[in-house]
Specification:
The protein has helices at 12-26, 39-45, 62-75, 84-102, 104-114, 122-131, 145-155, 172-175, 189-198, 221-231, 254-269, 302-307, 319-325, 359-368, 371-380, 389-398, and strands at 3-8, 30-35, 50-51, 136-140, 160-163, 183-186, 205-207, 240-244, 272-276, 293-295, 311-314, 330-333, 350-353. By secondary structure, the chain is α/β, with parallel strands linked by helices. It has two domains: 3-213 and 388-398, Rossmann fold; 221-380, Rossmann fold, CATH 3.40.50.12580. The strands form two sheets. A seven-stranded parallel sheet has the order 3-2-1-4-5-6-7, with helices on both faces. Helix 1 (12-26) crosses helix 16, helix 4 (84-102) packs across helix 5 and helix 6 packs across helix 7 (145-155). The protein is globular. Mean pLDDT is 90; it is low at 410-415.
């Protein structure tokens, strides 16, 4: 085993693979980083070399052109850090493969039903594995290119690891499959039990923690927090709430309404609001800055955004777990279309509310450190903090010894 393809898209997913790059290098392996969508820009900013879909997709292919142009109308946003040519390659190749597999009408029907999750470009990933001379695969848990990469690795009997960056319930219909990573690495034993109950072999699921959390704990957190707050214009004694926003496709105005509600809550209580947009949200320069509200820029790490804040509010973001690692109060508002798949609990130390109208009560509970807040704080401080997750995941990969060298198909269909 030498060359390891590491695949992720942006947000919480790329935060997982950045520490894996160094852990793989430390283990004497060569990570080949495929940065999808907004992950590419994040990896470049960290000085990590990448390969792209664009390197392996022929944009002169008429079907790639046709479907790329069609999907870019709905799924490419200028200012997101993704070039149009990369969107054309990513979207066009995926849809062109689906059309070749099932026909145009069936492909469009699947797209209408599932959106981009209908795209599963396994043949393209086989092509990339061959062209890059890959010996093993690590991918995060997205249902598109990451899943396709793991499926392709299974076809080739390559060692593979799927790192579950979030809650397994939301993707259980494919995460439970044996071809979605020979080994699954999850945050904790509770998530492991959920995958085993869904059908994964117990030996194929390991509770390793999340590599994105490894670097959260810093010895100089106090001075760093004060420096970050000073640079952001936050007074020492002003309580600060971080809103971790994510898109809501079925109700796109929902995150905006919560943002507006939090702006009013913070103004009424003399607090400050910091807004952390999801990478696939609207560009930061396109939203109105309400009185007293600050934006956490895309270039700011999640850790720094959390350090300068005193509490966190979110619908579904895994930033909530990162906040727990940093001993920050968390309010989860269970009003999202994805809330049934998000497994935050009071036993984790999270204050879960069922309406936006209840958010202020929860925040005031944290602010005044009432009885419920003190109980939740005790639970929060029991949250696991390993700091060795990246190395544990690489060990899971290395322990897989393929019985024979990878056997690539000689004439697999080119994507």
């Amino acid at each position: 085993m030498k060359r390891v393809l590491v695949v992720s898209y942006g947000g919480a997913h790329v935060a997982v693979v950045i520490p894996l790059y160094q852990a793989l290098t430390n283990a004497g392996l060569t990570p080949v980083m495929l940065g999808l969508t907004t992950a590419a820009d994040v990896l470049r900013r960290h000085g990590i070399p990448i390969i792209r879909f664009l390197d392996h997709v022929d944009l002169q292919d008429k079907q790639v052109q046709r479907w790329g142009e069609y999907l870019c109308v709905f799924h490419h946003a200028e200012g997101s850090g993704i070039s149009r040519s990369e969107s054309l390659a990513y979207l066009g190749a995926g849809m062109a493969e689906l059309v070749r597999d099932v026909g145009e009408q069936a492909a469009l029907a699947r797209y209408r039903a599932a959106g981009l999750n209908a795209l599963l470009p396994v043949k393209l990933m086989l092509k990339i594995l061959l062209a890059e001379n890959i010996d093993a695969v690590i991918a995060t848990d997205s249902p598109r290119a990451e899943r396709a990469t793991l499926n392709a690795a299974a076809q080739l009997s390559l060692p593979s690891v799927c790192v579950v960056s979030s809650f397994p319930d939301i993707g259980m219909h494919y995460l439970k499959r044996a071809d979605n990573g020979a080994v699954m690495c999850v945050l904790n034993e509770r998530f492991k039990d959920q995958l085993v109950a869904a059908g994964r072999a117990p030996s194929s699921v390991q509770a390793t923690g999340n590599p994105a959390f490894d670097a959260l704990i810093v010895p100089d957190a106090g001075p760093l927090r004060e420096s970050l707050r000073t640079r952001s214009g936050l007074a020492t004694n002003v309580w600060t709430v971080l809103w971790a926003e994510q898109p809501e496709p079925m109700d796109p105005t929902l995150p905006h309404r919560m943002r507006h509600e939090l702006t009013e809550i913070c103004a009424a209580n003399g607090w400050r609001l910091v807004v952390r947009l999801h990478p696939s949200s609207q560009p930061a320069d396109s939203i109105a800055i309400a009185g007293g509200m600050l934006l956490s820029p895309r270039t700011e790490s999640v850790r720094d955004a959390l350090l300068k804040s005193d509490a966190v509010v979110t619908f579904t973001s895994t930033i909530g777990f990162e906040a727990l690692v940093l001993d920050k109060p968390v309010v989860v508002v269970a009003v999202s279309q994805y809330s049934n798949f998000v497994d935050y609990r009071d036993t984790d130390g999270v204050w879960v509310v069922n309406s936006m109208e209840s958010v202020e009560t929860a925040l005031l509970g944290w602010f005044h450190n009432d009885t419920q807040a003190r109980t939740l704080a005790l639970n929060r401080r029991a949250f696991p903090r390993t700091g060795e997750s990246a190395r544990a995941i690489v060990d899971c990969l290395i322990r897989q010894q393929p019985p024979t060298p990878p056997q690539y198909p000689r004439n697999h269909e080119q994507s």
